[in-house]
């Protein structure tokens, strides 16, 4: 059977890149068939990865509130808790257990090659003025926990944005290494599923990806933004001109700013590929393009924002929804872990 797994950090409400790059794909996968035969049924697990969030020191109360807010936002985006198993990672202890077991067969060299780790290392070295970077061990082993997430459910498909593809390749390497070490075809090889908008860029610097951790709030749209905030951020987005009379074109290398807006428009209006959206918008100047993107963004995001707010008025209900998902996730994880523990010689049952 096909099994889908994906995760998101509890950052409070998601930003537009999270939504267009992955959440929307999770919503779509709920209603569609997977696999070469086009008719394969599948289960989908969506985890709010609060253990991963600990790699950035957070206030405990804030982390708990952000986790609940993320759950509300996911449901508002269309994640149906009856069709997707929606749960907090920390509610299923086998994630941490499998993380340990996989860490014990993963060479540190594989982790040192991860670009996200390398850039964190660089950032911290700069902050520390080139002195002792005092990097947390959790940042290095972060992708091992991610591999554990995916492999625990024997996931076959993992819908993510482009920035997670390398981590997923590592998960495949770890899976293959495990199967070989213990001479069992226990883990299927998980495949990344990308959308057309797998890399939404910052509105201020279109050469960097849109990110929740960007210190410039103007650089991202979040699913909590008011219509006025959405409008102001898009109006101030960095654009580039293609020469007199060029109009709107899609050319990410030459015109990253305009192309990012086209990509956002295309995703919001469901036009593919992006060049087709550019053709539709060709006659507009940059400020008309921004007006079109703003209109599309508000049409999609305002209902999600309002529904998130409505859901957050009843935190007990969100909590109950998560708990129901966690019962299902724990049952699957316990059965899977028993088999893994048996395989590597640990106590099981
Ligand atoms: P996170 O929480 O940073 O992001 C969640 C998802 O959003 C995608 N994404 C983007 N897509 C397009 N454009 C962007 N600018 C953009 N920014 C973020 C991410 O690729 C991701 O799919 N480590 C993961 C969470 C995780 C996970 C997993 C994912 C933990 N375990 C197992 C898949 C499978 C993360 O930090 O995602």
How does this structure look, described?
The structure is a single chain. The protein has helices spanning 16-30, 50-53, 60-77, 94-103, 108-112, 115-127, 137-152, 165-181, 227-235, 256-269, 274-281, 286-312, 315-344, and strands spanning 2-8, 42-48, 85-88, 157-159, 191-193. The chain is globular, with a radius of gyration of 21 Å. Strand 1 (2-8), helix 1 (16-30) and strand 2 form a beta-alpha-beta unit. The protein has 349 residues and is mainly alpha-helical. It has 2 domains: 2-197 and 314-344, 3-Layer(aba) Sandwich (Rossmann fold); 217-310, Tyrosyl-Transfer RNA Synthetase, CATH 1.10.240. It binds tryptophanyl-5'AMP (TYM). The site of tryptophanyl-5'AMP has 25 residues, from strand 1, helix 1 and helix 7.
Task: Give structural attributes.
349 residues, mainly alpha, Rossmann fold, Tyrosyl-Transfer RNA Synthetase, 2 domains, three-stranded parallel sheet, two-stranded parallel sheet, 13 helices, 5 strands, globular, binds tryptophanyl-5'AMP, nucleotide-binding, tryptophan-tRNA ligase activity, protein biosynthesis, EC 6.1.1.2
Assign a percent range to the helix content.
40-55%
Just name the CATH architecture of the largest domain.
Answer: 3-Layer(aba) Sandwich
- What is the alpha-carbon Rg in Å? 21 Å
**Ligand roster:** tryptophanyl-5'AMP
Order of helices and strands: EHEHHEHHHHEHEHHHHH
Protein name: Tryptophan--tRNA ligase, mitochondrial
Family: Belongs to the class-I aminoacyl-tRNA synthetase family.
Main location: mitochondrion
Keywords: Aminoacyl-tRNA synthetase, ATP-binding, Ligase, Nucleotide-binding, Protein biosynthesis
């Amino acid at each position: 059977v096909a099994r889908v797994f994906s995760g998101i950090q509890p950052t409070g409400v998601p930003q537009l890149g999270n939504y267009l790059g992955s959440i929307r794909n999770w919503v779509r996968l709920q209603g569609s068939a997977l696999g070469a035969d086009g008719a394969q049924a599948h289960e989908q697990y969506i985890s709010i990865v609060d253990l991963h969030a600990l790699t950035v020191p957070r206030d405990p109360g804030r982390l708990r509130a952000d986790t609940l807010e993320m759950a509300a936002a996911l449901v508002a985006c269309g994640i149906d808790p009856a069709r997707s198993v929606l749960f907090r990672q920390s509610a299923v202890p086998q994630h941490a257990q499998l993380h340990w077991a996989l860490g014990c067969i993963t060479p540190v060299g594989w982790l040192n090659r991860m670009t996200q780790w390398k850039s964190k290392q660089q950032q911290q070295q700069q902050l520390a003025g080139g002195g002792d970077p005092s990097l947390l061990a959790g940042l290095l082993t972060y992708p091992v926990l991610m591999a554990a997430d995916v492999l625990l459910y024997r996931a076959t498909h993992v819908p993510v944005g482009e920035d997670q593809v390398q981590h997923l390749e590592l998960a495949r390497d770890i899976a293959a290494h495990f199967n070989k070490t213990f001479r069992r075809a226990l883990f299927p090889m998980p495949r990344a599923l990308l959308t057309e908008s797998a890399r939404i860029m910052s509105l201020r610097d279109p050469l960097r990806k849109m990110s929740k951790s960007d210190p410039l709030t103007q650089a991202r749209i979040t699913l909590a933004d008011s219509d006025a905030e959405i409008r102001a951020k898009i109006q101030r987005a960095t654009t580039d001109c293609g020469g007199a009379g060029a109009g709107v074109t899609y050319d990410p290398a030459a015109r990253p700013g305009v192309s990012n807006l086209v990509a956002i428009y295309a995703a919001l209006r469901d036009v593919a590929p992006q060049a087709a959206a550019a053709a539709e918008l060709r006659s507009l100047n940059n400020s008309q393009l921004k007006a079109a993107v703003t209109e599309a963004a508000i049409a999609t995001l305002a209902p999600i924002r309002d529904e998130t707010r409505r859901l957050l008025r009843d935190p007990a209900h969100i909590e109950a929804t998560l708990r129901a998902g966690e019962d299902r996730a724990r049952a699957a994880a316990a059965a899977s872990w028993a088999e893994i523990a048996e395989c590597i010689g640990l106590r099981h049952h």
